[in-house]
Amino acid sequence: MGGVSEPFQPLLDFAAADVAAEDGDALIVDIDGYEGPLHVLLALARSQKVDLLQLSITRLAEQYLAFVHTARRARFSLAADYLVMAAWLAYLKSRLLLPKPARKGADEPPAEEVAAALAFRLAKLDAMRRAVEALKTRPQLKRDVFTRGDPDAIQITSTTRFDGDLYALIQAYVAQRRRDASRRYQPRAPEAYPLEDARRRLRGKLGEMKAWTTLTSVAPKRSPLDEEDRGPSRASYLASTLAAGLELVREGELEARQSEHFADLYLRACSLRLEAAE
Amino acid sequence: MSDPFETERRLEALLFAAAEPLSAADLAKRLPEGADIGAGLMALKSSYAGRGVSLVCVADRWRFQTAEDLAFLMTEEREESRRLSKAAQETLAIIAYHQPVTRADIESIRGVQASRGTIDVLLELGLVRLRGRRRTPGRPVTLGTTDTFLELYGLASLADLPGAQEMKALGLLSLDMPADFGVPNPVSDLAEDEDPLEPGDAPEFHQDFLGEDLPLED
Amino acid sequence: MSDPFETERRLEALLFAAAEPLSAADLAKRLPEGADIGAGLMALKSSYAGRGVSLVCVADRWRFQTAEDLAFLMTEEREESRRLSKAAQETLAIIAYHQPVTRADIESIRGVQASRGTIDVLLELGLVRLRGRRRTPGRPVTLGTTDTFLELYGLASLADLPGAQEMKALGLLSLDMPADFGVPNPVSDLAEDEDPLEPGDAPEFHQDFLGEDLPLED
Q1: Nearest CA in chain B to C9
Q2: Which among A94, B140, C121, C209 has most CB atoms closer than 10 A?
Q3: CB-count exposure of residue C24 (10 Å: 0-12, 13-18, 19+)
Q4: Residue A215's CB: how many other CB atoms inside 10 A?
């Protein structure tokens, strides 16, 4: 490791990655350990054992292309971004190796600059990997160091802080909007017992209605299988059956009778029609 | 290992971090064999003599406690504004995003009646203010957030409240939200249908704001 | 009353009894006027040097904690903390060292799209917070670390992040990539055709929400 890493190297457990990087197979087997092409490049770059800013990008490109090649031969399916990186590196390598054209490509920065930028980007990522290690070695609360354990201790709390937790605030907001949304969609329109169904059913029952029969006993009951808030209500069954009954009365198939207001309503099939039907 | 000072500092750490008083036997179990627990405890006790904290033995168990003569310092502090209740947090969130907002608006979104206490607490903490009145029948008082709110939540302006896009990026919005889900863009300027509170119009909070018959707009 | 030793023992008692780290201002409120808090804290810190318990400054506040080298003794007190994934650890480091930082910055440094469950885990754990918005087109939300983060790692301030000075000197913490930087960025390359928004969901915050017709009433 070169100058970049020297000022602070808390824990060099990159050795394993370096070994893996030198041995193509080991790296492949470990592909799940890499999150993306940049992480693979970093592991490969470390194997060059030079300051990342002095990295040979040509060599790195070769290493990476070999890695992708082996991975494909071993039928590891590589995500598209690994292949994009491979194509880009192959192109960069060719630009680095070929003699400079007399006229520069219109928009393209010199290949050396691009290579330096890549090395810089790897150095940045590397710095963060080191930061992770450095943080890990710090004494951590409740892992390495402990504050007073007595839960019943007199509690003096800091008054100079208020938890203005924006994340909690928007969490609270979203939770309510979600509740609100589901609440708005919930109340289903009450289901009515269709008149046609009531007519069909009543007509089918005419044979059983030779004697006066109460409306309530003719109307369908709510099945116990009906879910609490699903299916027509008892009132709807009754109302539709009554309406269907009145239509049948008009058509002369049924008679209806009620002795007084609010008394039970009786229905009876018209005898003439019945006999004719039989 | 039986360096007496090392024994003393280990006892010190164990007693400090323990959730309850520890007996000499408890302590012995966690120290190397041969450590002189008794001597260590005595040494520790005298190290703390006269300090702000002392080591005491109650019912054969040892613990640290603050010096008796400093008890007057230990008045318990009420956890006042430290954390908002869930209801207050939720109400504040709605006021922040939907301001200017009336009590009826809040209730309509929350689906619960706004309790007297909740909005009161937010007003008292200075997180929420009375902004004006809406130009609708009943002229209900509108609420909004204050500068203190912005400060405490580290926001430069109301426009900095995270929007739906950010909520989604943070994984807070799941796919079961209705397609037309949007988050309003709150403003501190008066809304079109909002009048400022005129001088002398100090809404009598309980009457004006929590009155029962505030009409729902529309 | 400004006997330095008395100040020291009062500070000792208060910090010992405190449920959480206390700032110099918190302490000053509970001590007589004129007490030299700074000197008292320094004296107290050196009284505890080398002992089993030590006084440390975290997030600009003071607390007692057990000595670092005695971690091995504390098996009973240890809490199995939620282990962060590698990606989450790296993301946390990036946020800590580069803050204020946007999601796009993080993705650009890591070269991978931030998956769900990294940033939001850090937010849930209270290690990371939303800080504000960057004044660039799109006004992206910026992230930073919390006091909880400093307390967890025992850092007095962000300036104490290990290695930060060196990294800064080498320019490794700047968020500006060299001008003509052309490394394929899988994130932005993929982001265009990949995923992210439901049809009709415009990514522009202001467009999206300014005229949005989310009715308060209905």
Answers
A1: B52
A2: B140
A3: middle
A4: 16
**Predicted confidence band of residue B196 (pLDDT cuts 50, 70, 90):** confident
Residue B32 CB-density burial (10 A; 0-12 exposed, 13-18 middle, 19+ buried): exposed
- Write the CA distances from B18 to A99, C38, C42, C73, integer angstroms: 72, 29, 26, 11
Neighbouring subunits of C (3+ Cβ pairs under 8 A):
A, B
Centroid of chain to Cα B99: 22
User: What does the pLDDT look like over B20-51, one tens digit per residue?
Assistant: 899 999 999 999 988 999 999 999 999 999 99
CA angle in degrees (0–180, nearest 5) for A166-A169-A170: 90
| Residue among B10, C52, C129, C66 at smallest CA distance from A141 | C66
ipTM given for this complex: 0.73
Q: pLDDT tens digits, residue range C139-192?
A: 888 899 999 999 999 999 999 999 999 999 988 998 876 544 555 554 443 333
Count of C-beta atoms within a 10 Å radius of residue C218: 9
d(CA A185, CA C101): 39
HSE-up of residue B12 (Cα within 13 Å, Cβ side): 28
CB of A171 within 8 Å of any CB in chain B?
Answer: yes
B103, B190 contact by CB (below 8 A): no
First to last CA, chain A: 105
Asked if A151 has any chain B CB less than 8 Å from its own CB, the reply is: yes
**Which of the 8 DSSP states describes residue B196?**
E
| Chain A to chain C Cβ contacts (< 8 Å) | 186
CA atoms within 13 A on the CB side of A103: 3
- Confidence (pTM): 0.70
Residues of B in contact with C3 (CB under 8 A): none
Using an 8 Å CB-CB cutoff, list chain B residues near A170.
93, 161-162, 167, 170, 172
Tell whether C109 is within 8 A of chain A (Cβ). Answer: yes
**Closest partner residue to B153 among A156, A164, A172, by Cβ?**
A164
